[in-house]
Amino acid sequence: MRPQPAPLSAWRPIAADRFLLGAAHYPEHVEESYWERDADRMVACGFNVVRLGEFAWHIFEPRQGTFDFDLFDRAIEVLARRGIDIIMCTPTATPPRWLTQAHPGVLRVDRRGRRARHGSRQHADTTSRVYREHSRRITRALAEHYRDDARVIGWQTDNELNTTVSESYSESTEAEFRRFLRARYSDIGALNRAWGTDFWSQRYDDFDQIDAPYHLAPSFANPTQVLDYHRFLAAATAAFQHDQVEILRATNPDWFIFHNLGQLQDIDFRGQFSTDLDFLGYDVYPFLRDEILRMGDPAQTQAFMADIFRGFTGNFIVPEQQSGIGSQPGFTTTTPEPGEMRRMALSSVAKGADGLMFFRWRPAHFGAEIYWNGILDHDDTPRRRFEEAKLFGRDISRIERALLGTSVRMDVAIAGSDFDNQEIHKTYPLAMPTPQNAGGVLHAYCYERGIACGFAHPEDDLARLKLFFVPHWLIWKDAWTTAAEEFVRGGGTLVIGARTGSRDANNHVIREASPGTSLGALCGVTVEEFGPLTPLGALGLAETIERAEGVVTLPTRPAESSRRIHTVEISGRSLPAAHAYEILQITAGAEVVGTWGARFAKGQPAITMRRLGAGRIVYVGTYLTPALIDALLEGPLAEVGIASLLPGCPKGVEASLREADGRRLLFLLNTHAVPATVTGVPVGTELLEAQPVSGGTLALGPYGCAVVQLS
After folding, report:
1. Catalytic option among 167, 176, 320, 423
2. C-alpha closest to that of 376 among 23, 11, 46
3. Considering only Cβ atoms within 10 Å of each terminal Cβ, which end of the chain, N or C, has fewer?
């Protein structure tokens, strides 16, 4: 029987008795003569599973109602003879041409009114009732065909939902959006109040009058309408997936079911989307993601994104782990250097992966990803990536027993995994970073120093933490205050960022001083005044327009520093602030630990601390900078005891700890192409090479890896 998953938590391990190790495989892309040696080579790598079929609807159903599973049945037979199990996928990311030709209304419509065309992927509108019915039909056919096939052990739903695009403005989308709003508000008057439609004469008399919010048509849309549109998209995505999960669960309750996430758009990870699944999957492409986020360090980017993702539901699997260059006609990433593919895979494991499949087994010779390289090369010759896959397979065999059931240690956590807070910011960003990106400053600080850091939700078990940082969440629920107070009284440190609690669930500015009644009482402060800290050398308006539109550039001029409030004074030190200032008023029990350092705000409270029970609450009336973090941890928060997992880690060596039931696995991964020496390593056994560690020193070669089971 399939083990039941535990409730969602940043510390939840996957209920599994083995590490799922393998690759995404496409037998339909090569001649059948390749299949036998492919399977033999997979066994040589230690693989126990492959993922099949996510883009093969046209093969499974070449004509409506005519099903053909023969190609995949034969491929499965070849793999199964070698003991390799199968994860099948519902192929709904790429509907066949006969479907889109017969039902053009299932195609997405973009914000400019252009209907998608066949010849790409994710061109079908998942809100379309017609498309949902066809998706159910192909899912049911596949499920029935494989229901008693013991070689098929689980399913992936669709493929990277909402990664290519999440929005649609088709007639069916707008009709479903109106249904969503009727269910949410029941009465049009309630919607008008929630949306504040007395502004700009937007009041509606009936739900049928409402359109989806078009971008700049001609000016900015109602922010609450935009928020509800994205709530709708998330609900529609969950409903689309639920159709498939319902069929698969009813057909064979022993199958595990997951989804592989890409860009993480318009998905509520603490809602039905995740609770429907046994666990989540996250596709790991560090070089591509680093180009998108522009962090400048693919290893740090990988750690940041894995920590964010683990904060959604806990441990995960990696259905696609980068093995070579990643490329489509519009972009190409760099290539992992020798040893780096293995190091990246072990980084995923260190950050919470309980299964990993490389993407892909072999590259395609045709289509839009001919240079998305895999374990093998185009000429079918195993080279260094194949050897690294074999080495990683050996690594997993040596750590698997100690690894499974463990979760990733966090001493510091950043509040994450709250859909409304991520989306509400985007509707009216005030030229400020998203909460996730603002939290990234603290994450980078911890990563560079080897401090155990990740992301968690306020509803998680915060007692496992030393410090919990809320990065400027505009919505703050009173129920979270109760949990936060319990955390603080028990000895935890709660850090609240500027603007937290300043809007309500309807995207209205609250009618009392922020951060609101309950959180304000807990912090012992109210906000008297706030405003932006415009970067020197730029106009305040320029950044806002560029972020909103991406094409409008206003001329800049050197800003007069005398007009800006840029510094906070802590213990006689003048330190840079970022993005926003708040002038605080002490209300009960708090003390001032930082004041503003310039102009009219000079000497006014900027950072406060209130002691409560065995812990403390710090309110930061700006955005964190590395210098502010340094000053707080060395000064007012020194007693919290935030320290590196291993002080002897040199720069470039990533340290993570996975632990459970007395087991502790310390991952030490050299992210650089030059050797590194780690000192101060505790006594234990280095599992990858099966060697004792007693002298406290480990030498790591270029991209070298060590996993120490601590005594």
Report:
1. 320
2. 23
3. N
Catalytic residue among 54, 160, 174, 340: 160
**pLDDT digit string (tens) for 63-95?**
999 999 999 999 999 999 999 999 999 999 999
| pLDDT tens digit sequence for 215-234 | 888 999 999 999 999 999 99
Q: What is the mean pLDDT of residues 241-250?
A: 98
Whether residue 105 has pLDDT greater than 60: yes
CA atoms within 13 A on the CB side of 467: 25
At residue 375, what is the residue type?
A: I
pLDDT in tens, 554-612: 444 444 444 566 899 999 999 999 999 999 999 989 999 999 998 899 999 999 999 99
340 is an active site residue: no
What value does the CA radius of gyration of the chain take, rounded to a whole number of Å? 26
CA distance 427 to 222: 8
Per CATH, which fold does 412-640 belong to?
Answer: Rossmann fold (3.40.50)
How many other C-beta atoms can be found within 10 angstroms of the C-beta atom of residue 35?
17
- Of residues 191, 277, 264, the one with CA closest to residue 233: 264
215: number of Cβ within 10 Å:
13
What is the rounded distance in angstroms from the CA atom of residue 603 to the CA atom of residue 597?
A: 6
Q: Which two three-digit tokens encode residue 166? A: 């999440």
pLDDT in tens, 520-558: 999 999 999 999 987 654 444 444 443 433 334 444 444
- Write the single-letter amino acid at 304: F
**What is residue 695's predicted lDDT score, i.e. its pLDDT?**
84
Q: Is the pTM of this model over 0.90?
A: yes
Q: Is 320 a catalytic residue?
A: yes
Token pair, residue 124, equals: 């079908």
Cα–Cα distance for residue pair 32/34, rounded to 1 Å: 5
Helix (H, G, I), strand (E, B) or coil at 317: strand
Confirm if 584 and 528 have CB atoms less than 8 A apart.
yes
Q: Coil, helix or strand for 255?
A: coil
> Would you call 462 helix, strand, or coil by DSSP?
helix
Q: Which residues pair with 612 in a beta bridge?
A: 615
- Cα-based distances in Å from 323 to 24, 48, 266, 389: 11, 18, 28, 9
